[in-house]
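Internal tracking record. Fields below are filled automatically when a chain is submitted to the structure queue. Please do not edit lines marked as system-generated. If the sequence contains nonstandard residues, flag them in the REMARKS field before resubmitting.
Queue: standard
Priority: normal
Entity type: single polypeptide chain
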Amino acid sequence: MSSTTPKLVADGLWHCLCPLYSSAPLSTTRNALIRRRRPALQCAATRIPPPAAVRHNSTAPAVKFRGNVDVSPDLPRSDLPIMNAWVPLDEKKQSMPRETALRTTIRQKTTVKKADYPNLSTPELYELAHAAAAKGNSREVQWMVEYLVRDRRETPNLRLYSISILANVHPSEGSARRVAGLLQEMEEEGLQMNVQICHDVLRVLSVHMDYLLRIDILQYMRRQWLQLNNDGHHWVGAALFREGQLELGLTHLESMRRDNIPIQTWLYDIAMYSMLETNEFDEALVLVKDRIAADDWTISRNLWTHMLDRSAAAFHYSSTVYVWNSQVIPGYLIPSSGTCLNVLTTAARNGDAALATSVFHVLGKRSTTFKQIHYDQLLTTYMSTSPPDLRAAFTVLTIMASVKIPPTAVSTRPILTHLRRYPSDCTTVFDILTSLHESGRELPVAALNVLIEGYVETNQLEQALVAYKHMHLFERLPTDKSGNPIRRSRPFSTLETFNILLRGAAKPIAQQAYSLAMFLVSEMLALNIRPDYLVYDRLIVVCIQDQKLDIAYRYFDEMEELGFLPRPRTTELLAKSLAERRDDRCWDVLQRMQDRGAGVDEKGKERVEMAFFHAGGFEKEVESKGEEVKQEESK
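SYSTEM-GENERATED OUTPUT FOLLOWS
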């Protein structure tokens, strides 16, 4: 065969198109390959990218020789050019001799000084440079590449570019722009990317995001029939998740499973962290279940902790319950107290009493001092169940009283919400309180107040008064050494109790509201309970509704002396009621409130003026001014 004969590359595509072709003719082109050695990477064979996997359709035995060229077993290996740069990533370790692989592994763990470069052969320097590039040691790679080009007279080749590109994998010292510049240099040098360089670029782009360059590389590989190996699929998936293209990333994972590509743990971890950071808890939970279904139990404790923290902080129920039941209850994970509180809140929102009880059990094992917020969330949990567990909710209130954490009105809001929706359950609550008191439990005032408030909110004012008059029967008095009860120094009823009852008296539908209000005032004086601004405010409203404006104005003066301010709506109501009776004190009320910085808005003033006008107040004022003018003229 003459030297002008075109070179024949027996790659996978050739065997696919010509299955009857034998590898023997390659022996006739051996001399041509040797003559054009220059270096080996500049030969024509290196200009055609090899496929990542070679398919053999010929029956003749073949031998893999450090590249993608199939040769017959009788062809001497020493007569072919060195093509280390073309070894596929999956087959590189297998193609290397055992001694070389062992020596390379040892050298990857050691740092070679620049003074030792002359003592190493060129292949060893290439291997060391590639190992340093894989670690992201860009400075060491730069030294080795400069030494190879300057001292060893190595011409720019694909392997040097592969090493330089791979060195950009360092998260802070590398960049995608530098990789694009190296690819441009390769194009100017007339070098075409091979499968190794494509994978190096994809590896760098999994750290430094550049989706346009990644798309170009993948399209180039498809055009050249280059296939991604397992690592390449992982790097593409990692880049998609880090760029926030979650749907494409999940689709890529699904395609890897469909192609039976084993997915490594670190890619699953990146996918889960990305899902959790974007609050895609449902997809993160699906990934966890898929990993466990595939017998992948290598999920780290940090990832479990992060998943529980994020899910509980967002009150995502399904993922929180899954992590808690699979990791916390068996004892594999110990969540922080803050995470436990978030889990407790999640249980309260979803009415999961078992989860809330489990949280209390975990916190109790570490001797946590429970606070009001813990009991409030537990009570909310019982009221969120279907149907609500009223007895368990009031039992929580008794527990709070026994541990000297008096519940407040905030603690009982879930119970009040239920009573507003189901007024008939007020009777059930009264029976529950009676049962708890007879069993020896201490009932806090908040438990009785919420019952009275439930009666008031459902317009059962008479029942509210009955419950108030029976409050002293639920009081549990301490006893002395002789067993005699010790009277409390303060009353069992509180200011909040009277505010609730006055709220009911201030309703328009209340009958004999004024008499009820005066009864409550006398009760407060007898129990030595000092009223607050809300008591005075509601007394003014009751007096206005009963047409006792003088008493209402007197309470208004008393509020000002005590430094209290009525609510704006109450001030407007008092001024408007006085205006409707042609009482000039309406302007005094508005002016005094404006002087104290709590005046009525403009619309409220307009309503007062309109009421005064329709009552004839302005006509009376005009007549009085006219008489004054006549008297002055007569003088």
